[in-house]
Amino acid sequence: MQQTDGMTFIVKTITRISVWMILLYGFYIIFHGHLTPGGGFGGGVIIALAFLNVMLAYGRKFTASWLNISFLHDVEASSALLFLVVGILGISLGGAFLANFLTKGQLFHLISAGTILPLNILIGMKVGMSLFLVVWSLAGLKIEKGE
Amino acid sequence: MIVYLLCFLLFLVGLYGVITKRDFIKIILSIGILGYAVNLMLILFAYRKNSSYPILSEGAPIKQMVDPLPQALVLTSIVIELGTTALLVALAIKLFEKYQTFDITKIRRLSG
Fold first, then answer.
1. How far apart are alpha carbons B26 and A2 in whole angstroms?
2. How many C-beta neighbours within 10 Å does residue A55 have?
3. Is A110 in the B-facing interface, judged by CB distances under 8 Å?
4. CB atoms within 10 A of CB A99
5. What digits encode the pLDDT tens for the residues A55-112?
6. What pTM did the predictor assign?
7. A with B: how many residue pairs have Cβ under 8 Å apart?
8. Which of A12, A121, B40, B84 could serve as a FRET partner for B8 with CA atoms 20 to 30 Å apart?
9. Alpha carbon distance A53, A42 (integer Å)
10. What confidence category does residue A10 fall into, taking pLDDT thresholds of 50, 70 and 90?
11. In sequence order, what are the beta bridge partners of B65?
């Protein structure tokens, strides 16, 4: 059971349970951004913290095999492009950049804000992945020990 | 009025840290405190007494609300602060690689 990578057995077991709850909470915050406090930025930060929790508890090697880091890079880069696509669809369908072209739905329900919900999801993808990848790259720098 | 003074005091705490501390990590933390003080000042300017948060909810009566514009501005400010902090930490790691210390009085020579 002796492992050099990551933290102790207790931390790993708790992380295995709690990381899914943290991810679920992050998705809840993103999907209810137009109804309650929160939104794409807050939910994205919570998702990034869930991944960072795994990285701290299990170490870099396990996290690199659990998550596909290059895929996360692709998600982070494509979300900005998809935001632009939604904005330009607003020009062609609604008349102005980022204009609403989806149904407005019923007030105070989940489908009630047109394009705000997909835009929140894209912002959450962007923020979560970029925050996680920033800390991931900073933690990957090899520093030689000082004297 | 006292909350504005306390906010300014928080700003001064951050400024004190930036000016007097020698450790680079402590300077980065002080810059973070400076940013928090500025964010708090913007939120305090938007505050109105006896008013609620600017979110409508089902069935609840519409009450007097605080100004939501500075809150949106502060959200952007927090994102930019995150970026600057990440840049400063990367610079600190590079400095430590070159000079083997975080003490800014020892980081002098350009050619290590």
1. 36
2. 21
3. no
4. 15
5. 999 988 889 999 999 999 999 999 999 999 999 999 999 889 999 888 888 888 888 8
6. 0.85
7. 28
8. B84
9. 17
10. very high
11. B52
